[in-house]
Amino acid sequence: MDSLKFFDAWGKINAGVLQGNLNWIGQSSECRDIETVQSKQRIVQLVVYSNGRTQIEGSDMKLKKNSTSEGTGAFNFTVLYGVCFPSRCSDAEVKTTLEKMIWQPNRNSLETDKKWIKIGKVFSESPGKLDAYFAVAVTLYCLLLMTIIIATIMDYVLSVVKQQQIQFHQKITQSSANKKSFDTGQEADAEKVKFERFIWFKFLLCFSLRRNILEFYSSNSSYGTISCLNGIRVLSIAWIILGDSAEYLVNMKPGVTFYCNNALFLFERYLKSFAFHAVSNSGFAHDTFFTISGFLSSFLTLRKLEHVGKIKFPFWSRFYIRRYVRYTPPLMFIVLFIVGIWKVLGNGTGPKWQPGLNQVDDCEKASWANLLYVNNLYTKYKCMIWTWYNANEFQFFLLSPLFIYPMFKSSSYGFMLTLAVTVTSIASTFTILYSQNFPPGNAFLTDHKSSYFYNKNRVFELLYTKPWTRFSTYGIGMLFGWFVYRRPPPSLRLNTVYVVSGWFLSVGIAMSVVYGLHDVGNGSLPTRDVNRFGSAVYNALSRPLWSGCICWLIWACMNNYGGLVDEFLSMHFWTPLSKLTYMSYLINVLIIQFIYMTTNDTFNFSIVSFSVLYIAQLVLTFGFAAFFSVLLEAPLVSIDKLLMNHDQHLVNS
Questions:
Q1: 350-405 pLDDT, tens digit each
Q2: How far is 448 from 332, CA to CA, in rounded Å?
Q3: Terminal Cα-to-Cα distance of the chain (whole angstroms)
Q4: Full-model pTM
Q5: Contact present, 470 and 425 (Cβ < 8 Å)
Q6: Contact at 8 Å (CB) between 422 and 482?
Q7: Distance separating alpha carbons of residues 560 and 628, to the nearest angstrom
Q8: Comparing C-alpha atoms, which of 47, 78, 62, 57 is closest to residue 446?
């Protein structure tokens, strides 16, 4: 029976080859189930080529036409083939054995119709080890958990003592006791909770699970809160998760797609459709967050500067320290999770887990870049590659006083300075795009059969993550914050005609930005025929235009011009969810990767199946974000509020 399991676990040719089903990975669970010989599954890269040279670039395997055989119909494609071998066999031995099994004709043969096969990389199931990183991670998590338990118990004891005080005072009030006994009772009760006044106790209570659950997930908003931002944040992070889900499904290495078994059908049928542009253009949600961040940094800081009056050094030092302390611990928490625990979660799941271990190695070598928020500049190692946004946003925050303070001291000078830097950012984006001749849009919208299918890593490195190309939307947000500060709602009233025109213009621009490249995406306008100048103009202006539309949306809602849109975005339902957006962004890619890399089978894409998968990922992301937020992020918010009580004293000291 074990012999049958051994061969049955090997990959088989599946239906749907013409739709891109070239992932014949077999059954890793059946291979592990062999009892006579301990075995494990490998996934082997088989590169098939005809009438030309093979093209293998490490583990980056792409279905592409052979450039040396243009016009002859020659092509290369990669098959990911699962094989079951004894565990004691190394990957090199497996590769050598398979090479002996495969007959390869002489390269000088005149039989040009014969196919050539070359074995590339071998992916094996590599269990993560319980090393020092694992021990440190578990120890720190246990310390955090113990702190939370102690704080929760102390908070419960305090609530019981206070309740007893209330009952005691009520009894005294209702009785005919004299005033002296009442005063004596007050003094005695005051001694019971004297320890509550100590700063260390207040700090400890910030970790109380009871308080954080009640406060963090409360739907109550403080006075002056711009409530429409809650809905915008939640919908934006949901859009990012939607795009990441499709992105990692289609483009995760080591192949054209490692997890989808009908990639060509997906490209032809869905990625070219009009509706799917909303998925492929989810990157605009990052610009929404940049805009909101720039808006709040300038608007709130300008109001605080007006309230404080004379500015001293403690104000700006606390301005930076609070920001770093508020956002870095959750990031550190996830980095520690990756280097310590992430690598062991996939043990026993199969060889598809191995590609996910690359980020473990990168985080062990370069997590310092993430914690210093320079990982978008130092790109030798890519730890949590999606946190390029966090690095940019923090860098912009560091520079924001250079624009905000001039806005406060000299309104016109500060405005012109911010506008000049924003325009410079747009110009730098245009220059890079034009010089590199990048096509419009992103890889999703580019004809995958064309030689113009650009190197996405190159776009990511040169353009997508750099602060000098990303500042434009943050700068527009800062300018908008300055405008709202100068003309606070509802000081500026508009005629109905202008309001309606503003909505039509905003919606029209937003739709044009998202769906404007439909002809390029569906192949009716090949990317090689797109004018280089026009392509650069679109990529340089699309994000600032999107940012402008978000500014109009916020302004209209603040001035009661939002109507049903404002009512929808300001629903109390969004308030607790909006507090989870930061943690959701940090963990959403990990959840997506875990689902894709631990499943034994590949994914057959359809609208229904992808929708179910997306909803599951969305629920899991917000669920885990809620759990981690209560444990870590909510205490930081409470500590921040505790420190804020001393702000005015420090500024005026």
A1: 777 765 666 888 898 889 999 999 999 988 888 998 999 999 999 999 999 999 99
A2: 38
A3: 82
A4: 0.85
A5: yes
A6: no
A7: 36
A8: 62
Q: By C-alpha distance, which of 244, 253, 278, 245 is closest to 386?
A: 244
CA dist., res. 549 & res. 507, Å (int): 7
Which among 214, 168, 212 has a CA at the least distance from the CA of 187? 168
Please name which of 430, 440, 600, 589 lies closest in space to residue 525, comparing C-alpha atoms.
440
Query: Which residue reads 């013409």 in tokens?
Result: 18
Distance CA 144, CA 142 (A): 5
Helix (H) or strand (E) holding 49: strand 39-50
Could you report the per-residue pLDDT of 82-114, keeping only the tens digit for each?
888 888 888 888 888 887 777 555 444 444 434
Tell me the residue type at 418: T
Q: How many CA atoms lie within 13 A of 344 on its CB side?
A: 13
Cα–Cα dist 530/450, whole Å: 13
Q: Where are the alpha helices (DSSP H) in 227-312?
A: 228-251, 263-265, 277-280, 284-308
**Please, which residues have CB within 8 angstroms of residue 238's CB and are 6 or more apart in sequence?**
618
How high is the mean pLDDT of the chain?
A: 79
DSSP one-letter string for 71-138: TTT-EEEEEEEEEEEETTS-HHHHHHHHHHHS----TT-S-TTSEEEEEEEEEE--PPP--HHHHHHH
Per-domain residue ranges of the chain: 2-124, 132-205, 228-652
